[in-house]
Amino acid sequence: MNSNPYKRKCCICKKPIEGTGHNPIPVWPTGRCCDKCHTTYVLPARYRLIAIREELEKTEQDDTDKNNQ
Ligand SMILES: [Zn+2]
């Protein structure tokens, strides 16, 4: 482990994190991000991914329906 919990830096903006930070996935694959980057980048990216996944699931269901006919 190379992460010191007392000297965490945001993996996105590189500024020191206050508190425990946040999971930066899907914007960044490892580390922790600060409150600001979590709100600004990570949450919108997750909403977009969820929307994309819902679209893909709809498409899969359409294909299944066609195959059943
Ligand atoms: Zn940040």
Using the CA coordinates, give the radius of gyration.
18 Å
Average pLDDT over all residues:
88
> How many strand elements?
0
Q: Would you identify the regions where 5 or more consecutive residues have pLDDT less than 50?
A: none
Tally of individual helices: 1
Q: Give, in order, the helices and strands.
A: H
Derived structural class: mainly alpha
Inertia-based shape: rod-shaped
The main β sheet shows up as: none
Bound molecules: zinc ion
Protein model, in words:
It is a single chain. The chain is mainly alpha-helical and 69 residues long. It has one domain (1-69). It is 49% helix and 0% strand. The chain is built from one helix and no strands. It has one helix at 35-68. The longest helix is centred in the C-terminal third of the chain and has 34 residues, at 35-68. The termini are far apart. The mean pLDDT is 88. Bound molecules: zinc ion. Residues 10, 12-13, 15, 33-34, 36-37 line the site of zinc ion (ZN).
Key features?
single chain; 69 residues; rod-shaped; binds zinc ion
Architecture blueprint of SSEs:
Blueprint (H helix, E strand, L loop, with lengths): L34 H34 L1
The structure holds zinc ion (ZN).
Zinc ion binds next to helix 1.
Structure summary:
Helix content is 49%, strand content 0%. It has one helix spanning 35-68. 13% of the residues are buried.
